[in-house]
Amino acid sequence: MLPTPARSGLSLLVGVKRCVDYAVKIRIRPDGKGVDTNVKNSMNPFDEIAVEEAVRLREKHKGDVSRIAAVSIGPAKAADVLRTALAMGADDAIHVEIPADTVIEPLGVSKILAAITKAEMEKGPDDEAWAWTMGKQAIDDDASQTGQMLAAHLDWPQATFASKLEFKGGFKKGEKVEVTREIDGGLATMETTLPFVLTTDLRLNEPRYASLPNIMKAKKKPLKKVTLKDLGLENEISPRLETLEVKEPPKRQGGIKVENVDELIAKLKESGRI
Asked: Ranges for the Electron transfer flavoprotein alpha/beta-subunit N-terminal domain (predicted)?
């Protein structure tokens, strides 16, 4: 275990997940039980936004954000997305390494992240403030559950689908934070206090590209590996769901051109649309 330096201020834990890259065309596996993951993988786009927001907070409030730690759960290859987070500006990373064929559902993920939080908090000073930030959902399962479940395990307030974040006071426990979220027909603004769990929406920011010098620096930043056994959770992350079948959506049918409105109405009636 790496020694944790003495610090004060806000420590940000940022969840990042390794997913099939958003630009890759998804292919169904031959067994019909999932998708082919032996393709290009990258950081979940919503988690990139979470990392960017953490780095921007430190740039805006110099001295108040003492640490940004990226956390990922996955096989050995998941270290790639942690190095990306380090290149974007995170200080250190924690990799919960699991076998490549292990499936962990959001409930299991939230238990792991809660255990990491408690372990990290024990090493810090009592007056240190903490917060989690992560994408509102992962683009592979679209569950949008981990942040909410993590908040429940930690008994922390949660602010989900954030499109704007503003610290109204300082960076100590109990200080107020204002979060704006997009809702149908407008915006909703809510107020919460530290510590809290934040999940990020698309319009919160635009993530930066990691520069080559920062990519090189990231190779020297601390990346700690832990196992489920280290966390005492090796028997508590069994999946509760079974995937029965994965199918591609039906292929789109070609359209037709009509000469006038009457013909359009007739065709819509034929197809049962009206």
From this structure: 31-235
